[in-house]
Amino acid sequence: MIIDRLFNEVEKNGNVCVGLDSHLDYIPVNLKEKYQDIDEVLFKYNKEIIDKTCDLVPVYKLQIAYYEAYGIKGLLGYKKTIEYLRSIKKITIGDIKRGDISSTAEMYAKAHFEGEFEVDFITLNPYLGFDTLTPFLKYIESGEKGVFVLLRTSNPGAKDIQYLKVSPKDEYLYYIVGDKLNEIGTKYRGSCGYSSIGAVVGGTHVDEAKEIRNRYKNMFFLIPGYGHQGATGKDVSLYLNNGNGGVINSSRGIITAYKNYEDGNQRFADYARKAVLEMREDIQSESGV
Amino acid sequence: MIIDRLFNEVEKNGNVCVGLDSHLDYIPVNLKEKYQDIDEVLFKYNKEIIDKTCDLVPVYKLQIAYYEAYGIKGLLGYKKTIEYLRSIKKITIGDIKRGDISSTAEMYAKAHFEGEFEVDFITLNPYLGFDTLTPFLKYIESGEKGVFVLLRTSNPGAKDIQYLKVSPKDEYLYYIVGDKLNEIGTKYRGSCGYSSIGAVVGGTHVDEAKEIRNRYKNMFFLIPGYGHQGATGKDVSLYLNNGNGGVINSSRGIITAYKNYEDGNQRFADYARKAVLEMREDIQSESGV
User: Do residues A9 and A15 lie in contact, with contact meaning Cβ atoms separated by under 8 Å?
Assistant: First the structure.
């Protein structure tokens, strides 16, 4: 199952998920001048970073909004990047946060689990209810694919809905979501013990980290919020289990690390590698592995 | 403001929103054989339907999943369709249901309010919280753009999260969302009285229709669920105010209406027109206009 592949990659390469949120403003001018088409600029930037980091990381995440923003060419850059990642056997997460009624969800599944935008994992939004997951289950059951459903996010607005207290037990809403995902996910556990139905859990709120980790022992977490959004290695390590059971995403902290160096423009991928190494060490020293 | 344009269109043309959820299976074989590229097939199908219905409807909605499913070419079909709609001055809703942290939401705003995929309205998902709306507000404030945020949807799973009872008042969660949207929307009301921050309210659950309409007097509703999903003209008219204040979407019921007729393949757009007329009448007879 795909979750076993991810588990093994984490065992081997650590927990850093490189977020390729490739805003054109993040890309060095010299690279932008070299290629005429946006898709090539995006792809070449991503490829250099991938080539310099792929021996250090278990998985790459692409936030599709950054590509949608540049229209057809932008999405062509997305497609080229995930195709490349798959060709070198790296695991891919399409951070698409889709969520829709089942006939529509079927089309999203076709788009992101089969078509030109095929990735290994996607992120999903549960607001419309759990029937919206159904069209994805056959892909998960086949062992080929997995999902990370939004549970508790890393932004300040997370409190608006996810932290509402729900009757009759007066529990945070995100536990209602988590309990249900946990239940659905039981059927899709790999030999590593984790389910291919994982959850997105922001690394920025740490008060309930231990409770979340204990309550969902078989859930694999995609953890955003490291670096720019404020979560530290210590914070995010609370969501891990003996150094596994989760990957921690960093985007700007890695792909724009070069901006702090004089020779950054020329060596942006080297500085991405350096940032990955530092982040990996920060997490590992805290998770005691 | 865009909401005034929509209000006026509804006054003139009624409440039917044509949903261009253009699955290739819905498209007549003879049309599919005529064009080599998927973008052309999708566009020509949409264009014929648009040309035969545009004097009868206030707005068109494109569910982007149906285009994403066909990859780059599919999205090119999406782009061509919305460009065409804008060229003939019809109002467009991009049914994208995005929702993400603010830096990402900024990119979605750029994608769907500025770029190649520019539409007049988009749909948004509130699960991540209300800070995720912020990047869209400057577009709304300019008067050019509007949003419909998911409040209570038309699928069975709506009960899973939207109908949770929230402490301390033991109210349905969707009222928490609605009250907050209503509050944010106050600032963006047009001269018609409605706000450019509208809501998606499924037409299939009618028990609380009157309460929703009364509680959110200045909110314009995008109402899915008519036809295939089970809502009737009587059901959806409960969400209107003197025949305005909402548009009712139908997709398959209109764009595949031709399948019931022997000469449907040749005359699919004529039958789409017939379906629109019948639906418009069904709603108007019930809303007493």
Answer: no
